From TrEMBL:
Protein's recorded name: MO25-like protein At5g47540 isoform X2
Underlying gene: LOC107795799
Family the entry assigns: Belongs to the Mo25 family.
Organism: Nicotiana tabacum
Domain of life: Eukaryota
Pfam families assigned to the protein according to its UniProt record, in alphabetical order: Mo25
Length: 419
């Protein structure tokens, strides 16, 4: 029996081997066919859509700008649901804006390429894409707005052939500044437009346009907007306007002295908001102490109304406000041609002022401050009244603050007499 089994197995071996070989070949053919099918499937449009974006991103800065310009100009149709592919196109626009920002700012791995930046900048101004970015900002999502803001800001500093072409463009398109300033009317856009505006003000021609426009009066209201971040941003822009271009500011103040300081005093220095008062008195000192603004300093320190405001600011509980107010107040005292009403107000309040300065200290030692204070005290102590205020006697101011917290209040009859 064992021999028979061995013989049967031996007889079956050739057939079994043949079948195994055929089976192996079939599996190999099947595997090859599957590989071909898979490769073909990968090349098909449907699978490409899954693994790859439908829109291939442009390769050059010029392509990026031109495609962005087309999409920005088409935004209205996206919003009106006219274009069935609006979602895809909005995503593409977001991607393009991000690409532009990357070209201008570079990345963690590499610095921005000078040539690419120049190409992008030229194309943005040539195709009026900058205008579209500014005007279409409300239609973009938050991240796209951030990218757009940084793009506009960067363009103001991008030289092309050693020239800031942004300045020429904005000079020819001043209405864009109207749009940026009006952005403060919308809290959702104010910070974006404010950041753009401050960068545009780097150009003197732009700052001059804004200073001479009716927008300047609106800033006094913008700086008191209830939303703190918007008010702070408007204040930062206002400060930039009033400090960056010295000659332009001096010209503006000379031409607009009356209304400007009337608004400045009433809405900023006498504001109920502590932050507003603090920033305003600091800015006032910067303006008046600038050498180019000296023609405006004399009339300012000759006004009894201005002196009243400064003396009340000296009474603030905030040391910061007191110190900044002191730096302006000392200009009234140092004026060698004080009007009689200024002299008489200082004389009438002499005892209170001297008591105040005797205890007026700052946190850190400052020799210049101490020298200035000593000079102010000396000047006030040596002042003599110029004629009687009324009825042959020097008017006695209230020894205590009024209910409103003022250091002194001049009676109406006395003011008429001084005038």
């Amino acid at each position: 029996m064992p021999m028979l089994a061995t013989q049967i197995a031996a007889d079956k071996t050739p057939g079994l081997e043949k079948r195994e070989k055929e089976s192996h070949k079939a599996v190999k053919r099947s595997s090859s066919n599957l590989k071909k099918l898979f490769t073909k499937a990968l090349r098909s449009t449907g699978v490409k859509y899954i693994f790859k974006s439908k829109t291939k991103p442009p390769k050059t800065p010029i392509d990026v700008v031109r495609r962005s310009t087309f999409l920005l100009a088409s935004l209205d149709s996206f919003e009106d649901n006219v274009d069935p592919k609006r979602f895809d196109k909005m995503q593409e626009l977001d991607s393009l804006l991000h690409e532009m920002k990357s070209i201008l700012y570079g990345s963690n791995e590499c610095e921005p390429a000078v040539e690419a930046c120049a190409q992008l900048t030229q194309e943005l101004f040539r195709d009026n894409t900058l205008r579209l970015i500014i005007l279409c900002l409300p239609k973009l999502n938050l991240e796209a707005r951030k990218d757009a803001t940084r793009i506009v800001a960067n363009l103001q500093r991008q030289p092309v052939n050693s020239r800031l072409i942004a300045s020429d463009y904005l000079e020819a398109n001043p209405d864009l500044m109207d749009h940026l300033v009006s952005g403060y009317d919308d809290p959702g856009l104010a910070l974006h437009y404010g950041a753009m505006l401050r960068e545009c003000i780097r150009h003197q021609v732009v700052a001059r346009y804004v200073l001479r426009s009716e927008h300047m009066k609106r800033f006094f209201d913008y700086m008191q907007i209830p939303e703190f971040d918007v008010a702070a941003d408007a204040t930062a822009t206002f400060k930039e306007l009033m400090t960056r271009h010295k000659s332009t500011i001096a010209e503006f103040l000379f031409e607009n002295y009356d209304w400007f300081f009337t608004e400045f005093n009433a809405k900023l220095l006498e504001s109920a908001n502590y932050i507003t008062r603090r920033q305003a008195i600091k800015l006032l000192g910067d303006i008046l102490l600038d050498r180019l603004n000296s023609p405006m300093m004399t009339p300012y320190v000759s006004s009894k109304d201005n002196l009243r405001i400064l003396m009340n600011l000296l009474r603030e509980s905030s040391k910061n406000i007191q110190l900044d107010a002191f730096h302006v107040f000392k200009l009234f005292v140092a004026n060698r041609n004080k009007p009689s009403d200024i002299v008489n107000i200082l004389v009438a309040n002499r005892s209170k002022l001297l008591r105040f300065f005797a205890s007026f200290r700052i946190d850190k030692e400052d020799e210049q401050f101490e020298a200035d204070k000593a000079q102010v005290v000396k000047e006030i102590a040596e002042l003599e009244a110029i004629g009687p205020l009324f009825s042959g006697e020097l008017h006695k101011f209230p020894p205590t603050p009024t209910a409103s917290g003022e250091l002194y209040k001049t009676p109406t009859a006395c003011i008429r007499q001084l005038i």
